[in-house]
Amino acid sequence: MSSFINIFDQYSWDDIKERIYSKTASDVEAALTKPGRTPDDFMALISPAAAAYLEPMAQLSQQLTLQRFGKTIQLYVPMYLSNECNNICTYCGFSLDNKVRRRTLTATEILQEAEAIKSMGYEHVLLVTGEANHTVHIPYFKNALQLLRPHFAHISMEVQPLDEEDYRELIAGGLHTVLVYQETYHREDYKKHHPKGKKSNFQYRIETPDRLGRAGVHKIGLGILIGLEDWRTDSFFTALHLQYLERTYWQTKYSISFPRLRPFSGGLEPKVDMKDRELVQLICAWRIFNQEVELSLSTRELPKFRDHVMQLGITSISAGSKTNPGGYAVEPESLEQFEIADERSPAEMARVIASKGYEAVWKDWDQAL
Amino acid sequence: MLTIADKTFTSRLFTGTGKFSSAPVMEDALLASGSELVTVALKRVDMNDPNDDILRHLQHPHINLLPNTSGVRNAKEAVFAAQLAREALQTNWLKLEIHPDPKYLMPDPVETLRATEELVKLGFVVLPYIHADPVLCKRLEEAGAAAVMPLGSPIGSNKGLRTIDFLEIIIGQSKVPVVIDAGIGAPSDAAKAMEIGADAVLVNTAIAVAGQPVAMARAFKQAVEAGRTAYEARLAKPFGVAIASSPLTAFLDE
Question: Do the chains contact at B19 and A250, CB–CB below 8 Å?
Answer without folding.
Answer: no
